[in-house]
Design brief:
Blueprint (H helix, E strand, L loop, with lengths): L1 H39 L13 H9 L4 H9 L4 H10 L3 H6 L26 H13 L4 E3 L2 E2 L1 H32 L1 H14 L8 H8 L2 H26 L3 H9 L4 H39 L4 H10 L3 H29 L4
Antiparallel strand pairs: 1-2
Helix pairs in contact: 6-14, 7-8, 7-10, 7-12, 9-10, 10-12, 12-13, 12-14, 13-14
Length: 345
């Protein structure tokens, strides 16, 4: 009974801790949204009319400009010198409007949106929410080559990641086993690994574009390169650090090298291998976004760059949020796999 009470008390404490952390997380979220709303809030503005002196009005009337036209242009904030130019044309306001307005005549007019407040160009949380809802409700539309739903664009990015990542796993895990089980191969290959591993994945992009000559395959190659090293090094480390007595037991039972690798070494090294795979998928998702910005065409990375070029900041921010959500889902999937293969010695 005392033990059950202790465990039940510990479970209650964990639940209380989770509740407090959830509340704190929501407080941080709402505080961030509130600050965002305040910094991007732009009050309604109205045009401030131009005040004309009696002498200025007399000058305009002497040029046969109607009094109501003078009052209208002054209420729009147009300066006296510009109104004087309009009066010099000898045209009524109706005629000028039919010709396309004073802007069509080369005379600038103030606009309430011509000098936005510092925060007005950056979208507010409400604008982001509206755009996010529109994206979620119709993620797979196709309206042109450069106008497709974000669901399709994320699909292109995921496909490139899956291909490059799978090829990297097919090379890294067997090679990591070889390096981990053979000190000879470890000493022979380690210098090359230590030189190639720190190179930025994007540094390989120009070489890939030159040698492969295809932007799609070049993106996949970059994903392959960036996914290779974490899986390779973690696999080699996990295999090399399997407890020697487990391997000796397998030898005692006269298991062959292949059977020992699959029945003893692989299960023992699996948590470390999955850790490397989890690191690799995160790096791959980071790199594909940057690679798509460089090569263009399709993909969520290209969407971010394309929306920025069009100054559609609300759509750009929605794309960035979706990149984060997809990265979180990929990491969560590998975290679940990591827990599934974990064991206690």
């Amino acid at each position: 009974m005392p033990r059950q009470t202790m465990f039940s008390g510990g479970g209650k404490m964990i639940r209380n801790f989770d509740a407090r952390s959830a509340i704190l997380s929501f407080v941080i979220l709402f505080a961030g949204l509130f600050i965002w709303q305040i910094t991007t809030y732009v009050p309604e503005t109205e045009l401030v009319g131009t005040v004309l002196s009696d002498e200025q009005q007399e000058v305009l009337l002497s040029k046969d400009m109607a009094a109501e036209d003078i009052e209208f242009y002054a209420s729009q904030g147009i300066e006296f010198s510009q109104i004087d130019q309009i009066a010099g044309l000898g045209l009524s306001r109706e005629m000028i409007e039919m010709a396309g307005g004073i802007q069509a005549l080369g005379i600038s007019a103030p606009d309430e949106n011509s000098a936005p407040a510092p925060g007005s160009l950056f979208p507010s949380p409400g604008q982001i929410g509206t755009e996010l809802w529109a994206t979620i409700t119709d993620p797979f539309y196709v309206a042109g080559t450069n106008d497709m739903g974000y669901g399709i664009q994320i699909g292109y990015s995921l496909l490139r990641v899956v291909i490059g990542y799978t090829l990297a796993a097919a090379v890294a895990i067997p090679l990591g086993f070889l390096i981990g089980m053979s000190p000879l191969f470890y000493r022979a290959l380690d210098p090359y690994i230590q030189v190639l591993k720190p190179i930025s994945p994007l540094a390989w992009m120009p070489i890939a574009l030159f040698t492969i000559g295809d932007s799609e395959l070049s993106s996949i190659f970059v994903i392959f390169i960036c996914s290779l090293w974490p899986m390779l090094t973690n696999t080699a480390f996990g295999v090399a650090n399997v407890r020697a007595d487990w391997v000796n037991v397998a030898r005692t039972h006269e298991l062959g090298s292949v059977k020992t690798a699959f029945t003893v070494i692989l299960p023992a090294a699996a948590p470390t291998i999955i850790t490397g795979m989890r690191i690799s998928i995160g790096i791959a998702w980071l790199v594909i976004v940057a690679a798509e910005m460089l090569v263009g065409g399709t993909g969520i990375g290209y969407v971010v760059w394309n929306e920025w070029n069009g100054l559609r900041l609300d759509r750009m921010i929605v794309a960035i949020l979706l990149i984060g959500v997809m990265g979180m889902l990929l990491d969560a999937a590998f975290a679940r796999l990591q827990r599934a293969v974990a064991y206690t010695e």
